[in-house]
Amino acid sequence: MNLISMLLAAPLCGALLAALCGKRGKYANYTALAAEVLTLLISVLLLPPVLAGQGTVLHLPTVAGGLSFAADGLRAVWAVLACFAFAMSGLVCPATLKHGHTRYQTATMLALCGTLGVFLAADLYTFFICFELMSLSSWLWVIHEGDAGAKYAADTYLAVTVLGGLVLLMGLFTFTIMSGGTPGFEELQQMDFSAFPAWMKYLAGGLMLFGFAAKAGLFPLHFWMPMAYPAAPATGSALLSSILTKCGVLGMLILSVTMFRNDFRWGETILALGVVTMLLGALLALCSVEVKRMLACSSASQIGFIAVGIGLMSLLGDENLLAVRGTMLHMVNHTLIKLVLFLGAGVFAMNCGTLDLNRLRGAGRRNPLLALAFFTGAYSVAGIPGGSGYLSKTMLHEAIVEYTEILTATGGSIVPYMHLVEELFLLAGGLTLAYMLKLFVTLFLLPPETGKKPLRMNAATMAALAIPSALLWALGLAAHPLTDRILDIMQPALTHEKTTEAIAYFSTGNLTGACISIAVGIVVYFLVVRRLLTRDGKLINVVPGWCDLERKVYRPMFLRVLPGAAGLVCRLLDCSLDGVIVLLRRFVLRDLGRPRRPVAGLWLTDALGRFCDRVLDLINRTFRRKDPVEHRSYVYIFAEKEREIAASGRLIAVSLSFGMLLACAGLVATLLYLLF
Questions:
Q1: Which residues contact 674 (CB under 8 A, 6 or more apart)?
Q2: Of the candidates 16, 5, 245, which has an alpha carbon nearest to the alpha carbon of residue 110?
Q3: Which of the residues 89, 108, 476, 494 could staple to 235 if both were Cys, CB 3.0 to 4.6 A apart?
Q4: Widest distance between CA atoms in the chain
C-alpha cells in the first residue's frame, strides 16, 4: 500500500473512531493520540525513499480531475513536522481539555488530514481542497470553549477562513483560465509565464495571495490571530500557530517560486508586507498583558520575518540561496518555538485558571522544567547566538545585505529603502527580545504572590515540552552537521542554486548584527517595558482602542459601509429568504391556538392598515352586503408583519456569524461539486 495513502488514511480513521466515542469523550483523547503517533511513524517511514531519490506519488482518480499527492524533500520534512506537532499537542490534551473531547479530537483528526494533504499536494487543485478541509475543521478549536469571547473570535476566524477560501478559489479559477488547466507544481516551475497576459497573472496571483495571507496572518489580515489564539484551548493555539499558519506560508512560497520567480514587483510587495507585519506584530506583543495574546502577536511578527525571506527569494532571482535557506529554517524554528510556548501557556491556564501576566507574576518560579522550556523558546525566537533562531535570522539578514549590495552595484534607486529594511529588521529582532524578556521575567523571575502553589504537570506534558525544546537546542548548536543537512533536503524544491560552501554563521558581521538586536532589546525592555508599560508594579496595555482593525474597520465595513450592488443584492436575498421562512412559520407551521395580542405599528403601517380596512368595509357594504367578509383589522396584521420583518432584518444585519455560516455552507457545497 502506498505510504502517502496510509498517511492520509490514518487521521481519517482516527476522526471516525474519535467521533464514535460519543459521550465517552475521554477515550477520544487516547484514540486521537494513537492515530497521531501512528501517522508520525508513517511519515518517518516516508523519509528514506525520498532521501534515496525515489519520489512517492499518489493519484486518486475516483473524483473528477483526481487528487494528486507527491513527496519530495520539502514536503516529506514538513509532513514529519506536522505529525510531530499534532502528536506533541495530543500528549497534552488529556490534562488540559475539560469538555468536548469528542468534538475537539474529531476536528483535530480532520485538520491533521487536511494539513498533510496541503503539504503533500502535487497541484493547486489538491492544495485548495485540503487547505479548506484544514481551515474549516480548525474553526471548531476556536469555538471550543463556547463562551461569548470564543464565539466572537470564532465568528471572526470563520469570516477570514471563508472569505480567504472564496477569494483563493476565484484566483484558482482565474489561473485555470489563464493556463488552460491545473498543472502540477513541477510543471509550474517549468512554465514560461511571460507568455501570459501580465494583468491576468497578477490578478490570479493577487487573489491567491489573499487566501494564503489570510491563513498565514500577514498584514492586514493578521487581526484574527490575537483573538483566535487566546480563545482556543492551548493545544489548539499551539497547532494554529506552529503548523496551520505554515500552510498559508507554503502557498506563498509556491507562488513565489513558480508564477513570480524573478518578479521584482511581486518580491517588493511581499517584502513590504513582511516588514510591516514584522514590526506591527512585535509592537503589539510588547504591549500585551495576556500570555496567549502576546504569543499570537509574536506569531504575526515571526510570519513577517518569513515573508521578508519570501520577498527576497523573488528579488534575488537565481541567487536566492540564502533567502531560501533562511526562510525554510525560520519556518521550522517558528513551528517548534510556538509549539513549546503555547503548550507551556496551557500549563499556566490549567493550574491558575488565567493567563493575565499581572495575576501570573512569579507563578512558574518553582517549576524548573517549565522555566527551561520557556527559556528555550524565548532564547531561540530572540535570535541570540547559540539558538536556532539566530541561524535563520542570520541568513535572512545576509540576504538583505546581499540584495542591497547588488542594487548598489547596479545603481538601483531603492538602495536607501533597503538600508531602511535592514535597520527595521534589526529593530524587530530587538523588540522580539524585549517582549520575550517581559514574558519570562514576569512568569519566572519576579517574586510570586503569597499563597501560590507550584505548578503541576504530568509526565505526558513534560515530554511534550521537553522533546521540541531539545530539538531547538540541537538545531542551534549543531548548525553544520544537523541543520544544514535538513536544509539540503528541502532546498531543491525551491531553488536550483547549489550550496558551494558552508555558511559562516558566527562571522564578525553576523555576530555584529545579532549584538545590535540584543542591545536594542535590552534598552527597550528597561526603558519602555519597565518604565512606560509598568505602573504601580502592574503591566499595562497602552494600545488605543482605535487600533483594532477588526472592530473599527473590518466589521463596520462589512456590515455598514459597503452598500454597493453586491452587498445590496446579498441583503435582498437574505431578506427574501427570511421572508419565506416567516411566511412558512405564519401560514404553515403557525400555532392556531396562540392568543392574539394588540400590536402598535408605525405611521406607515397604521395608514396602510386603515386604508385596507376602509376598502374592505366599502366592499362589505356594496358588493358583499349579503355575505360580508369577516377579517381581523389590517392594522394589526400589518403591524405584526412589520415587527417580524424588522426583527429578522436586524438579526441578519448584525449577525456576522449567520452570513459566514451561509458562505461556509456555500464553500463546502463548492468543494463537494469540485470533488464529485
A1: 64, 65, 125, 129
A2: 16
A3: 89
A4: 108
